[in-house]
């Protein structure tokens, strides 16, 4: 990577310091068929499914969010991450006009709009991949072995694989060749096209599987046209600060903190969280991590640790540095377990009622807790870059101060013994006492 490309990463746009995302998986939330049967209609007789999200935008605002983070919405074969056309809305969701309506509705409510960009791989039904096996110029988009015969399954039946690079062994997902100029150009065109149409940010799916130098070629070119765009890389393990620096993304997903949060609560052992918060502080020296306690790829926090302990996870999320995301349904204490099988994500990607009025009242207490904590964060916007100073620690108890870069401070205590409980003390405010139902 050249010094010129490294220097091209600007300071992240200022609006992100005040952003809190509500993340939705559109195919699931709107009840679209995830694995359509041959001949099954992709649309229904009503309005495009993407329109079904509009009644939920006011709900997101009532929650306290000011950003809508959408899962994949582009044409794909099944779950959205097997893209077959980056420039078309999935017909199960609608069309360009439906997207334009949603983008306009977000703007009307002051909601930033983040899209999910799958640029590590495509589905094997993608026209570029279908054309590539013929030996034409489309081969430059992919990585084939010398033995590739043109089959889209195991190329010679000997179990050695399909003859083309895949994403993590999934033969239905063909990895793109990120060394090629053609793929660089494709990525620039995709990202720019939807920013032109009204998006304000991108989640870069499986960014960890892509050489950072690829992003360092792509993102500066996109920022030339959209300097206020924000780019979030999905990174699970590894050196987060180095990835941010080398790739020029603005942030990465803070999976370390996610894991430490739920496992500390489940195991009644805050020492793991203490260690992770030290690492989190170090990350804040170079970028602002994207924080979360749930997303479309993991078991729901309420299923992992129970609703009462999940409440403490939300306290943590809203009182440490970072750009927080709330995954749809977590604010209602939804349950759902991810299984490592075909369709194993379906339970954590459920359909929403047609309108918020259709939600069960059983989750109301968790919604109110989210609103209270998001309100606290809004009153103390310095929390976005706050460091965490642990004050006291043992297995079932953790107390810490959130400290702003200008010395602002609030105090948080978490307790699992005898029952989950938390307190947040901010100067000049009544204590926020969290005593979730058992």
Automatic annotation (TrEMBL):
CDD domains: AmyAc_bac_CMD_like. GO terms for molecular function: hydrolase activity, acting on glycosyl bonds. Residues 23-377 form the Glycosyl hydrolase family 13 catalytic domain. It comes from the Bacteria. One of its GO terms (biological process) is carbohydrate metabolic process. Keywords: Glycosidase, Hydrolase. This is Alpha-amylase. It comes from Actinomyces bowdenii.
